[in-house]
Write a structure and sequence with these properties.
Layout (H helix, E strand, L loop, with lengths): L15 H6 L8 E6 L2 E6 L8 H4 L13 H20 L1
Antiparallel strand pairs: 1-2
């Protein structure tokens, strides 16, 4: 077990070894909770959970021209960014 100190701003530093093992990078968001006498930090997923239904509409539809790989990637990226902005409200 490692020891850390609370700063005057209420911050703690997660030791580098733990950050490396768990792939925690700057900007990672955490859920924090008390469980008994413990303070628990749980990293939140970098991307919201997705379902198969979320991918509907990305597939080609009858009567529509095929897109190139670059056009497909651009369209998917644009839609994901739009969906992300919509969920952030």
């Amino acid at each position: 077990m490692e020891t850390v100190k609370l700063s005057t701003k209420g911050q703690i530093v997660i030791p580098k070894g733990i950050r490396d093992i768990h792939h925690l990078s700057p900007g990672t968001e955490f859920a924090i909770s008390f469980v008994g006498e413990e303070i628990r930090l749980k990293p939140l997923p970098a991307f919201p959970p997705a379902s198969v239904a979320d991918g509907l509409g990305f597939l080609a539809q009858a009567g529509q021209p095929s897109l190139s790989e670059a056009e497909t990637e651009a369209a998917i990226t644009a839609q994901l960014l739009a969906d992300d902005e919509a969920t952030k409200g």
